[in-house]
Amino acid sequence: MSHAIKFLLLTAPFLTLAATSCSHRPVDFYNDGVDRQARGDWDGAIADYGQAIALKPKFALAYDARGLARQAKGDWDSAIADYDQAIQFNPKDALACDARGQARQAKGDLDGAIADYTKAVQLKPDSAASYNNRAVARKAKGDWDGALADFTKAIALKPDYALAYSNRGNARQAKGDWDGAIADQTKAIALKPDYALAFNNRGLARQAKGDLDGAIADDTRAIQLRPADADALFNRANARKAKGDLDGAIADYTQAIQLKPDFIHACYDRGHARQAKGDLDGAIADYTQVIHLKPDHAFAFHNRARAKQAKGDLVGAIADSTKAIQLKPDDATAYHIRGAARLAKGDWDGAIADCTQAIQLKPDLAEAWHSRGGARLRKGDLDGSIADFTKAIQLKPNDATAYNNRGRARNAKGELDGAGADYAKAIELNPKYAWAWHNRGCLRYDARDFTAAAADFRKALELDPSNDYARFRLCLTRAWLGQALAATTELQIYLAGPANGQPDRWPSKIGLFLSGQLAEPGFLAAAKNADQPAEARQLCQAYFYAGSKHLLAGDKSAAVDYFQKSIAANETACLEYASAVAGLKSLQAQKN
Q1: SS3 at position 12
Q2: What is the pTM of this model?
């Protein structure tokens, strides 16, 4: 997000009075106060004005000046009290009315501020500053038309009023008039070439129009003029991020945070940029800092949950998304994030419940339909899964993953033509999608089109050499093509190499079994797991591969037994399930 555009008030200047004789001591104190105020010595100035007032209790101008000094210190109530006195002693004091309006506005009393500015312009109709200030108050109330009219009046009264041009530009930008905003900021810059804020604001308008290069140029000029301007750095970071320059954006966010350590927006958006770069630890650190600064920042929890999920910290992702939901119960994406984490943990029912809630809150959230489809596939609800993936595709027609996963559900359901079409579409949309090539290879393997299957598995491995399952299927496929020895040798070389760095993991057990380095009893025992969903999935796979080896050896009876056991595991999301169904169907057809 871009930082809020800034509207500036114009503060009245100080007046010095002539002291005609030593008997006019209040004037001397007043002038001493003006000198101190000009040097920024607010306390000294306040003391001097107090002396002047003590000697001359109805000294309206001294009340004005003391009010301005108190206002400069942020003591709004005392400033307002001084302006009240000034106006009481001089009801035509336009300066006091304007200044009191500024103090009231600083306190959030916009109606009171507007009333004061209105009185000021009634008393002094040519006061461009009061029109500018009333416009700022009207803008704060959301009265854009009133604000624009006042800014325009201020400019008419003072055509070289750079501040009013810049403020009017901001009002036009807030109304979506980017061209008008840019024209006004350009005029402000022409009047005042070193006007850093006008460059900053024009940069915001250009970014809103999509002119990112122009925005970056303006932000850069603003930074050159005011190197310590954290807002300008933040805005340039946003423009750079929008251009895809994540490194440049992160550098700017970092500098903005160094200048302003409690800059929540910069911390939050740097987290976004780091997450986009894959720096999950950095992103999590940034979101954590945002939460430290603002413990009720729902979207920081939301995005930290997403980063934790990407890191595999599913427990942390669930905890953070739950907190995001507590803070913002209508956050559909937070429900989806938690649902996706629950899906990854094997909590199918929890995933379905969360994704369903996300869909109710945001029916066009394609990712929620997709994740619910995945959970339903894992639960064996193939019709529900296909329906969800279909909806996800309708919402995001170019989502290769949704086509791939609908293909898996159709494959499990026996809709082989539909599955083949979905895999082909996934490959068309993303030719580098290794799993889509693998999955289509499995479909072709089940159809006993081993030559085409081998080509798909080779392509999957070309795209992703770490895809163990494509390697296993290629080994089986080559065996059916009469290349059993060469296939086994290729697999043994892979398993002995550095790519297989974790020989105790489950896929390695499959490879060792297929390559003859692990006996069947040990292989089946390795499939056992304390995690019930993991065990069901591994047994489904183990029985399929055991059955396939028996079938290749000509032992059809054992193959039938193992394929039936694979199917009984009811892991419909596993492609080994569909292959066991196809293998059993083929054997039964041969028997008949």
Answers
A1: coil
A2: 0.82
